[in-house]
Specification:
Layout: E1 6-10, E2 17-21, H1 24-45, H2 49-63, H3 67-80, H4 85-101, H5 105-117, H6 131-152, H7 164-167, H8 180-185, H9 201-217, H10 222-235, H11 238-251, H12 256-268, H13 272-281, H14 283-286, H15 290-302, H16 306-319
Antiparallel strand pairs: 1-2
Helix pairs in contact: 2-3, 2-4, 3-4, 4-5, 4-6, 6-10, 9-10, 10-11, 11-12, 12-13, 12-15, 13-15, 15-16
């Protein structure tokens, strides 16, 4: 064991004395302590390579369209990346898109709400994500919100549920960010949306037939009406989509999301003036949603309203940052 050798030194002229510690031990401690502290801090901040490897494997499986396998890897990776915000955003965005494509909408909504709850969107610049992928995520977030509103929108007569306007409190509308967190806060039934997405093209016709029966017997069913309109859009039957939405709006004229979907359809039918009116009807609820500003910009462009279109494109760009 090293012993400390101590000697007293007196400075000439002032009688001041101090103790000098001149041992190998003290020198080593002086040199090594900063290095030890730096290494400890680095070890604390370092992410376990296991989780990083799972993240990369999950992204690779996603690229190969092996979505179910990708989800398994990405969920485990996200667990270990909770302190690494940029990487966590990567994992969550891949999980939102993968689950959505697998028709697991409630899971997609959960991970989207986690992005909002943890305020991860500002980490986009540090994350290894393409702008195209991030835009896919924002579009899915918008679709989930509109489907949730449609699920709640019902005619007000005889114990029917509330319309989209009455779900959102006036003081919380306007420029409200239409996040999944906001959806959860309002108590909207995210878990009920699993079977509400337009089906793939091969089964779209059969699905449309089933939905037509539902809407025929329950014309106030907002979720089924909106879904049927989406299926018609997928099939390119824009006139049929317009008809479904107009019939539903006769039953529930205050449903903002149905007006918005009608506006989207009217744009495809080159009826920009009517489309803009329908889209604008949804502003109290959909203001701040990327799809709302995208469709509004398109309407202004069709009407040759260049300055108004430019403002909407700028607003859309700021929302995607």
């Amino acid at each position: 064991m090293l012993k400390l050798k101590i000697k007293t030194v007196e400075l000439p002229g002032n009688g001041f004395k101090f103790r000098a510690y001149s041992t190998i031990y003290s020198i080593l401690v002086t040199l090594w302590l900063p290095l030890i502290l730096i290494n400890m801090a680095a070890a604390h901040d370092q992410v376990d390579p296991f989780y990083l490897r799972l993240l990369e494997e999950g992204k690779l499986l996603f690229a190969q369209n092996k979505l179910a396998e990708a989800v398994k890897n990405l969920e485990i990776a996200a667990f270990g990346l909770i302190e690494e915000r940029a990487r966590l955003l990567e994992a969550y965005i891949y999980l939102v898109i993968s689950n959505y494509r697998l028709r697991q909408v409630s899971r997609a909504a959960y991970f989207a709400s986690e992005i909002e709850r943890l305020n991860l969107k500002p980490e986009f610049d540090r994350a290894n994500l393409s702008a195209e992928l991030y835009n896919q995520f924002l579009e899915i977030e918008s679709i989930l919100w509109r489907l949730a509103l449609a699920a709640q929108a019902r005619p007000s007569a005889k114990t029917r549920g509330v319309s989209a306007f009455s779900v959102i409190h006036p003081q919380e509308s306007g420029k409200m960010s239409l996040s999944l967190e906001a959806m959860k806060k309002e108590g909207l039934p995210v878990a009920l949306l699993n079977d509400m997405l337009p089906p793939p093209q091969p089964t779209a016709i059969q699905e449309a037939i089933k939905l037509e029966e539902i809407v025929k017997h329950d014309p106030g069913n907002g979720a089924a009406s909106l879904r049927l309109a989406m299926v018609y859009e997928e099939l390119g039957h824009w006139s049929k989509a317009r008809s479904v939405l107009k019939k539903y709006l006769k039953k529930n004229p205050d449903c903002a999301v149905a007006h918005f979907e009608l506006g989207r359809v009217l744009l495809q039918l080159q009826k920009a003036k009517e489309a803009l009116e329908e889209i604008q009807f949804a502003a109290p609820i959909l203001e701040g949603d990327i799809e709302f500003h995208y469709q509004k910009a398109r309407a202004h462009e069709q009407l040759n309203q260049v300055e108004e279109a430019r403002l909407e494109w700028e607003r859309l760009s700021s929302l995607k940052k």
